[in-house]
Specification:
Blueprint: E1 3-8, H1 14-23, E2 29-34, H2 37-45, E3 51-53, E4 57-58, E5 62-63, H3 65-73, E6 89-93, E7 104-107, H4 109-114, H5 116-122, E8 127-130, H6 134-142, E9 148-151, H7 153-159, E10 162-168
Parallel strand pairs: 1-2, 1-3, 7-8, 7-9
Antiparallel strand pairs: 4-5, 6-9, 6-10
Helix pairs in contact: 2-3
């Protein structure tokens, strides 16, 4: 039997990475990428998903308030497990793009705070473009809407991007 698991998408997010760690060994999984923690929890409540994976806490920003709020809007949905996921970012561009030419940088707002020291040291003058997820930032780079993204390393593979730095994470 296949279980459907909702998560903050698109593919390539840290939430997707947590999904695969949580369900390892549980059989066949159909991932269901959604646009928000609220939609992820409601997918379970409404029967569109059997399980969901959402971020609860962030070591830099604390509680993920959008998830806390979503739990209030999804009565009956309960937490059944957790995984601690170490977070670090890869800095990526389209292949052959020089960081020296970067003008627009994109990542999720929480991630932006987690890479601020790297940005200050390496790309101090770039314009920040908020993304709905870190993988969406990588997708924006692939589509030419941003020059540089901070995202999970897997996003570079998914969107055919060149990685300039890894292990980026302000503590």
């Amino acid at each position: 039997m296949t279980a459907t698991v909702a998560y903050l998408g698109p593919a390539g997010t840290f939430t997707e990475e947590a999904l695969w760690r949580l369900v390892d060994g549980l059989g066949e999984i159909t991932p269901l990428p959604v646009d928000s923690p609220s939609e992820a929890l409601n997918a379970v409540r409404e029967g569109r998903a059997d399980w969901t994976v959402v971020a609860i806490e962030n070591s830099v920003d604390g509680a993920v308030t959008s998830t806390s709020d979503a739990f209030l809007e999804a009565p009956g949905v309960q937490v059944y497990g957790e995984v601690e996921l170490p977070i670090s970012f890869a800095i990526m561009t389209q292949p052959g793009f020089s960081l020296a030419d970067a003008q627009r940088f994109s990542t999720h707002p929480v991630a932006h705070r987690q890479v601020r020291h790297w940005l200050a040291a390496n790309l101090p003058a770039v314009e920040y473009l908020a993304a709905t997820s870190n993988a969406a930032a990588a997708q924006a780079v692939a589509e030419g809407k941003a020059d540089v993204a901070a995202a999970p390393l897997r996003s570079a593979d998914l969107f055919g991007l060149e990685v300039h730095a890894t292990g980026i994470a302000d503590l």
